[in-house]
Specification:
Blueprint lengths: L1 H36 L3 H13 L4 H11 L2 H13 L3 H9 L4 H14 L3 H8 L8 H4 L8 H4 L4 H9 L4 H12 L5 H9 L4 H6 L2
Helix pairs in contact: 1-3, 2-3, 3-4, 6-7
Length: 203
Amino acid sequence: MVLLFAIAGTVFFVMRNHNQNKKEQKKVEKQKEENYLSLSASDRETADLYAELYEMSREAVAEQRVKTKDWEKTAKELEKAFFTIPENEKYQMEKDGYSLEDLQEAEKLSVKTGRKAIELAEAKGKISDKRKWSEVVKDSEILTTEEQLGLTKEQIQRLEDKSLGKEERVEVAILIMNGTYTFDEVIQKLDAGTTLEELMKNK
């Protein structure tokens, strides 16, 4: 009888904790949703774009936006989270059998491929997996400097058709990334006879 009461008490305790955890989780999820809904329509659109770009939920983006109260700061935090592995996670992964050298390489390849650093590290696996980077990342995935700065292959081709060299294409990418011009505006100005040097001076 005592044993039955002990078992029943244990089951009750486990179920109560489980229900409490579910309530807490629902509360957190509700708060995240409220953060997103509290944003203006244009801010929600921005959150949606960042969510797609950094492969995360729109609610998580909104949560970061609420913390920083600034999209530029939010973008930096999201970029950092995407392209780097937090030091505490690196420490734990090293303890679990991952190579520090591989974790650092994953961060470098994240920038070059546009893939999340932590996912690359996990795909490479632990030292015992003896997997090569060539099995994880194909040469075709390595982005050019222009692509890393945001230009698409089609845009790069259009600039090449205008006889712009690599350094010049990088300068165009920087102009667009800084919000000085849109790609179409750059093309229009080049077509109108404005030189890239003149465009750079106007930034």
